Amino acid sequence: MKYKRILLKLSGEALMGENQYGIDPQRLSEYAQEIKKIHALGVEIAIVIGGGNIFRGVAGASKGMDRVQGDYMGMLATVINGMALQGALEDAGMLTRLQTALKIEEIAEPYIKRRAVRHLEKNRIVIFGAGTGNPYFTTDTAAVLRGVEINADVILKGTRVDGVYTADPEKDPNAVKYESITFTDVLAKGLNVMDTTAFTLSQENQLPIVVFDMNKENNLLKVCQGENIGTTVY
């Protein structure tokens, strides 16, 4: 395996499947099976999941809601998604722990770095919920922060597109995909990989990011085995 310990970043929207909002149990089950393939090979897996399928703080703020209040609501949405994913992974026979940046001790452990690493060493999948626990930070930033803290080898950003393109491939048919690209080039070309805070944190800590299509069967496995899937930002 190319990567021993990964931080998998999933968007909340990914869980909607074909629905307009909420959680599609079928999609959850598919993701659990994909994750199981790499778990069976001994990859240590941590996961951060967004909350956009339930609530987006930024969207709420644009409609007049208090931004801080909206962001906390978004954090709680990521906890709901984390619980759903935890259930799907455990149904598929894996051991998991959900840790949250906000204390919700009845349903999750508080985030403690040493405890998270210990779980990973014991082959448990650790899901990090509630973002960084602070408003104004995205779950992308939470993913990179946790990845740095647990000494992950890579951030795997599972999306609907199969990599980083010169333009939005869903809008521009002439967009060309990069096999790999440096952090510096991404910034210079103004490409949209992650938000700037997350991206800078990744760059400063020399933590590579692989952007790939999570919805294609075996892609996660191929990435972990070092196949040229998606785009590597280094």
Automatic annotation (TrEMBL):
Q: What class of enzyme is it?
A: transferase
Recorded metabolic or biological pathway in which this protein acts: Pyrimidine metabolism; CTP biosynthesis via de novo pathway; UDP from UMP (UMPK route): step 1/1
Control of this protein's activity is summarized as: Inhibited by UTP.
Q: Name one GO biological process term.
A: 'de novo' CTP biosynthetic process
Principal place where this protein is found? cytoplasm
List the transmembrane segments: none
- At the top level, the lineage of the source is Bacteria
In terms of SUPFAM superfamilies, this protein maps to: Carbamate kinase-like (SSF53633)
Listed binding positions for ATP are: K9, L10, S11, G12, G52, R56, T159, Y165, D168
Q: By its UniProt entry, which InterPro entries does this protein fall under?
A: AceGlu_kinase-like_sf, Asp/Glu/Uridylate_kinase, Uridylate_kinase, Uridylate_kinase_bac
Residues that coordinate or bind UMP: G51, D71, T132, G133, N134, P135, Y136, F137, T138, T139
Keyword line: ATP-binding, Cytoplasm, Kinase, Nucleotide-binding, Pyrimidine biosynthesis, Transferase
Gene Ontology cellular component terms for the protein in this record: cytoplasm
- Compartments reported by the entry: Cytoplasm
Question: What chemistry does it catalyse, as a reaction equation?
Answer: UMP + ATP = UDP + ADP
Q: Tell me where in this chain the Aspartate/glutamate/uridylate kinase domain is found.
A: 4-213
Coiled coil regions in record: none
Q: CDD domains from the xrefs?
A: AAK_UMPK-PyrH-Ec (cd04254)
Give the GO molecular function terms: ATP binding; UMP kinase activity
Instruction: Kindly state the subunit structure of this protein.
Output: Homohexamer.
Q: Which PANTHER family match?
A: URIDYLATE KINASE, URIDYLATE KINASE PUMPKIN, CHLOROPLASTIC
Described purpose of this protein according to its UniProt entry:
Catalyzes the reversible phosphorylation of UMP to UDP.
The UniProt family comment states: Belongs to the UMP kinase family.
Protein name, please?
Uridylate kinase
The species this protein belongs to is Paenimyroides tangerinum
